[in-house]
Amino acid sequence: MSSSVYIAGVGVISAIGNNVAENLASLKSEHAGMSDITMIDTIYRTQLPVAEVKLSNDELAALADLPANISRTTLLSAVAAKEALDDANIPDLNNLRTGFVSANSVGGMDKSEDFFVKFLADNSKGKLRDIFDHECGSMTELVADKLGISDFITTVSTACSSSANAIFYGARLIKNDVLDVVIAGGTDSLTKFTLNGFNTLMILDKEFCKPFDENREGLNLGEGAGYLVLVSEKVAQTLAKQPYCKLSGYNNSNDAYHQTASSPDGTGSYLAMQGALKKSGLKTTDIDYINLHGTGTPNNDSAEGTAIKRLFGPDYPLMSSTKSYTGHTLGASGGIEAVFSVLAIQNKLIYPNLRFETRMDETPFEPVKELMTKQDIKHVMSNSFGFGGNCTSLIFSAI
Amino acid sequence: MKVYIRSSACVSPQNTFNSVDFLTDIVESTGTRLKAIEPDYKEFIDPKQIRRMSHVIKMGIAAAKSCLTQADVDMPGAVITGTALGCIADTVTFLTRIVEQEEEMLPPTAFIQSTHNTVAAQIALMLKCHNYNNTFVHKGISFESALFDAIMLLNEQEADNILVGGVEEMVDASFTVLSRLGLYKRWPVSNLSLYDTPTNGTIGGEGAAFFLATSEESPDNLAQLTGLKLLYKPKSIEESIAEFLKSHELSIEDIDLIITGKNGDTKNDEIYKNLNDSFFKNKSFANYKHLCGEYATSSSFALWLASNIVKGGVVPETVKEGNFGAFSPKKVLIYNHYQGKYHSLMLISAT
């Protein structure tokens, strides 16, 4: 039970790149992925910026070696999960117990909403092909089949903390000696459903988002997928290259305040960060960098900031929200940001929080404004907080 | 480490919720869809909120709260749910409004309540429970994934008194779509004669069953959850079952009763029939899907059933396959598969 879980591979696709190398290059060159909506048919085109993956479904399908008529969420997942597994390059994988734990928030909604237009007019209409994979589990199943994984597959959905919880669950499957290798993370594509949903909550910024800024006005939605390959200590020793780092801490706590809003003092965030620290046996001063949940909504950032103030004050680690690059990728965000956290350790980088200008009134600290290189980073905390009060923090530690 | 089920509550198309009788007063229904009997929600939920909550949220909260009351536990150590389609009523409502109102002037409530974690979140909110909270959404093993999480948490000694449940609601839109996909029978049948004429399709269902899982031994425990195994496309289900039993130092001879997920669909039931004629030969069988219908988390109904069978020592007549005399099963195996791909095994023992 006490054995460590290592990160042996990473894979990511987001608005700032179709693979790890491209994402890293954009993070370094401070290149944000937001632009006008081009992929979905909505009245909000040109009104609301989003962070789209810059590939069509046909292009993604070619990359993933899957049919182009399936959900974009599946295609994104397949691309990133494959990259992670290839990167890990685990010897003798077929003889290991391997699992795929993936997360998403709305399953095959991009296809379902097409189906629904025709279905609503006439219940006998609408292509069944478009609704067949509506369930969240379908995305995971199709990608697991593609990767040839069958020992254990499941799907987590806890809104915006979904993929952090998938990584957490995956690590525990290894610690409980159920599996040797787990590909864990999450995926979500932009949909009309979520765009309209967040719009009704009036938390979408009409400009590029400004996380943790006093004058922030909301989030930009994004899409993508991010996965880690988690391996047991035993498997880690067989790898040709050294694992990136360890997953040393994790915690899932609930804010139990409101279905969508965060509590003013950030109770859930505080408990998640505190719990993850406790699990890792680290002190607040051991954390070198926090990859913030930092969506850019007034309520979210205020709650997270307040929780950090309570837990870390007066010695604050460096911190930034990479949602200023990728937008909020919902069910994928925990996975994508876990990859970025791992890359921060590996490349000795602290990413800037783009467009930050003014410190929030309620916090005595501010996020990193410019890229910092040659940083000796030992411990990174990655925060993912979601609807339903679901708050999860992960801690990655250098080996 | 042992895992016990302290208490359980089940909202279903039968009189299973807060009922003294154990499946004696059976609801017969003719059609292809069974609807859950609604509890009196006022007992569990603030009346102001009842109106705004969807069916699945209300069923889930009622089952969860009743489960806690029975166990005399105020604050669970974790809340974990499994649901394949989640809050499908709110999802359909919001989708409908997007289309009908052409994305304009949409009220947020349906969207807010449409996320798959809403039931677990609302339970946490009502209890002011800040502990571990998770939701699994993987088709026919959504509930089993949640239960697996609960077992791991107990094993890790991270939490005790874990509230874990399976919830699923059926709405008209999903019923229509699933009918078009060929899941249900083409003609109405009585649920009580579901297995009599094997044809294609089954009957749809819904429900919510919650369990309080604990590692603490107590005479009040309902049952022991001796084992759980999730399988995806197993090469040989017979070998997998034998292996599972062996891992718990048991053989098929040790099993007193087998509850299978037979649902009246020829293709679905063939897997059980083959086993019943071979590996399971001469065992006593029970069926349950004529009571609750087929749905992705129906195995939670089966676990409620098995737990009560080993606790009370009585197998309700309605679940018996064929005639077998009165006996008190001590070890029950639940074997369910979902569309031939996902298989789950649960081993329940008397405490």
Any chance you could write out the topology, listing elements then pairs?
The complex is a heterodimer of chains A (399) and B (351).
Chain A: E1 5-13, H1 20-29, H2 57-64, H3 72-88, E2 98-103, H4 109-121, H5 128-132, H6 136-147, E3 152-156, H7 162-175, E4 181-188, H8 192-200, E5 224-232, H9 233-236, E6 245-254, H10 267-280, E7 289-291, H11 298-312, E8 318-320, H12 323-326, H13 333-347, E9 379-385, E10 390-397
Parallel strand pairs in A: 2-3, 2-4, 7-8, 7-9
Antiparallel strand pairs in A: 1-5, 1-6, 4-5, 6-10, 9-10
Helix pairs in contact in A: 2-3, 3-6, 7-13, 10-11
Chain B: E1 4-11, E2 30-31, H1 47-50, H2 55-71, E3 78-82, H3 88-100, H4 109-112, H5 118-127, E4 132-136, H6 142-155, E5 162-168, H7 172-180, E6 189-190, E7 207-214, E8 223-232, H8 237-247, E9 257-260, H9 266-277, E10 284-287, H10 289-292, H11 299-312, E11 331-338, E12 342-349
Parallel strand pairs in B: 3-4, 3-5, 9-10, 9-11
Antiparallel strand pairs in B: 1-7, 1-8, 2-6, 5-7, 8-12, 11-12
Structural features, described:
The complex is a heterodimer of chains A (399) and B (351). In chain A, a hairpin with a 4-residue loop joins strand 9 and strand 10. In chain A, helix 3 packs parallel to helix 6 (136-147). By secondary structure, chain A is of the alpha/beta class. Chain A has a ten-stranded mixed sheet, with helices on both faces. Chain A folds into two domains: 5-236, 3-Layer(aba) Sandwich (Peroxisomal Thiolase, Chain A, domain 1); 245-397, 3-Layer(aba) Sandwich (Peroxisomal Thiolase, Chain A, domain 1). Chain A contains 13 helices and ten strands. Chain B is of the alpha/beta class and 351 residues long. Chain B folds into two domains: 4-214, Thiolase/Chalcone synthase (Peroxisomal Thiolase, Chain A, domain 1); 226-349, Thiolase/Chalcone synthase (Peroxisomal Thiolase, Chain A, domain 1). Chain B has helices at residues 47-50, 55-71, 88-100, 109-112, 118-127, 142-155, 172-180, 237-247, 266-277, 289-292, 299-312, and strands at 4-11, 30-31, 78-82, 132-136, 162-168, 189-190, 207-214, 223-232, 257-260, 284-287, 331-338, 342-349. In chain B, the strands form two sheets. In chain B, strands 4-3-5-7-1-8-12-11-9-10 form a ten-stranded mixed sheet, with helices on both faces. A two-stranded antiparallel ribbon of chain B has the order 2-6. In chain B, a hairpin with a 3-residue loop joins strand 11 and strand 12. In chain B, helix 2 packs across helix 5 (118-127). Classes of the chains: A alpha/beta (399), B alpha/beta (351). Chains A and B meet through helix 4, helix 5, helix 6, strand 3 and helix 7 of A and helix 3, helix 5, strand 4, helix 6 and helix 7 of B.
